[in-house]
Write a structure and sequence with these properties.
By secondary structure, the chain is an alpha/beta fold. It has helices spanning 76-84, 92-102, 117-131, 144-157, 174-181, 192-200, 217-222, 226-235, 251-260, 291-299, 314-326, 340-351, 362-365, 385-392; strands at 107-111, 137-140, 165-168, 187-190, 211-214, 241-246, 265-269, 278-284, 307-310, 331-334, 357-360, 375-378, 402-408. The protein has a 7-stranded parallel β-sheet with strand order 3-4-2-5-6-1-7. Helix 14 (385-392) links the parallel strand 12 and strand 13 (402-408). It starts with 75 loop residues before the first helix and ends with a strand.
């Protein structure tokens, strides 16, 4: 347990920029592989880190599930919506987290994407909204893609329940979002930059929001949003319930917890943390060989069914996509310069297998939960080992094996 701080209201930092951009990047220490969040200039990563023989995928350790869906003390209409979504049983994090959120506890959830954490906080929060329509929920996510995924999950649960959500993200029309905020809504899902922008314009007031979710907090730290998160938390209701979810728990996140959460309960479900179920190897580009030719030969091999390829730059992503399309592959790309609606369209095409190769930059792919990715290919070497682990974590999900290849040379 963490100690309760003397006051829940923190001092508001001044000097928000009009465009809502981060003031500084979050800092972080190294990890056991000697790689920090950023590599020193010119320092090459040890390529042996990219080689790992996958261990046999065994069924995850069976954790006792105490609650069935019927046992949950939630609105019967919500139970019916859960059943209609074909949820046969709760995941471990849902089993542990939902009752705690219903009790009003502050939560620290240590869990990777793919463990069912979105439903773990949405289900009890939807129940609270049904019980008290005056409740208001703020969900903060690191990327627009993750924010959209949360919105989609929300509406899947509330189809017939007359609850509404507004998504506040960059890359989309701010005027349209402002218009949506004027209508009746119970939930706002947003990224830090656009949330701050609309707050500075006085189009969004957070003082009525008494339920807050910080999703993928460590990613927001990596992207330089830690001070923005502090500022947002300082503006919500003083009597609030905060749920923080993160794959890791660095010191900066711990400090955030100590400042803004009261007696939080920590629940931890970090299966597959070390990516042991992912077959990892390198592909050496021999002298005189064309990198795109080598990639072409790889992708033509059997079992390369659904492939996510990472490049370091946006320009590189577009260039590679053009090369792959010219060679006859069904490929498309996502990165920060693509319009929001086009990114969403590309992701839907990849999820539905209309496109089977997606080229992405690191930031664009953060938080993506795409099922059945057979291979991750690092066309460009990642900047640091944390980014590498994040990249390859898009495959080998839900107790399935995965494959990751890093092109060298």
């Amino acid at each position: 347990m963490y100690r309760q701080t003397k006051t829940r209201q923190s001092r508001v930092n001044k000097g928000w920029s009009r465009n809502g951009g981060p003031k500084r990047r979050g800092s972080g220490g190294g990890n056991k592989y000697g790689q920090g969040r950023r590599n020193p200039a010119g320092k090459k990563m040890d390529i042996n880190l990219f080689i790992n023989k996958a261990e046999s995928v065994e069924p995850a350790k069976v954790l006792e599930i105490k609650n069935s869906i019927e046992d949950l003390k939630i609105d019967n209409r919500l139970k019916q919506a859960i059943v209609e979504r074909k949820y046969s049983k709760l995941t471990p994090i849902q089993d542990k987290t939902i009752p705690l959120v219903l009790e009003g506890k502050d939560i620290i959830g240590l869990a990777n994407t793919g463990t069912g954490k979105t439903a773990a906080f949405l289900i009890p929060l939807i129940h609270k909204l049904l019980s008290n329509p005056r409740e208001k929920v703020l969900i903060v996510a690191p990327t627009r893609e993750l924010a959209i995924q949360i919105e989609e999950e929300f509406y899947a649960f509330v189809k017939k329940l007359n609850l509404h959500c507004v998504v506040i993200v960059g890359g989309a029309s701010a005027q349209r979002q402002i218009s949506q905020l004027r209508r009746n809504h119970s939930v706002v899902v947003g990224t830090p930059g656009r949330l701050k922008d609309l707050i500075s314009r006085r189009k969004l007031v957070l003082s009525d929001f008494n339920k807050v979710v910080l999703d993928e907090a460590d990613r927001m730290l990596d992207m330089g949003f830690i001070n923005d998160i502090r500022e947002l938390l300082s503006l919500v209701a003083s009597k609030r319930q905060v749920m923080l979810f993160s794959a890791t728990f660095p010191r900066e996140i711990e400090n955030l917890v100590e400042q803004f959460l009261v007696d939080p309960v920590k629940v931890s479900f970090q299966e597959n943390k070390n990516s042991k179920q992912i077959e990892q190897n390198i592909v050496r580009i021999q002298s005189g060989k064309n990198k795109d030719d080598v990639l072409h030969d790889l992708l033509n091999q059997k079992f390369f069914d659904k492939v996510l390829i990472f490049t370091r730059t946006k320009r590189g992503a577009d260039k590679l996509t053009k090369s792959l399309s010219y060679r006859g592959f069904k490929a498309d790309s996502i990165h920060g310069d693509k319009p929001h609606n086009k990114r969403q369209r590309v992701l839907k095409m990849f999820k539905s297998n209309m496109v089977n190769i997606l080229v992405a930059t690191d930031v664009a792919a953060r938080g993506l939960d795409i099922p059945n990715v057979s291979h991750v290919i690092n066309y460009d070497i990642p900047e640091n080992y944390d980014d590498y682990i994040h990249r390859i974590g898009r495959t080998g999900r839900a107790d399935k094996s995965g494959n990751a290849l890093t092109m060298i040379g």
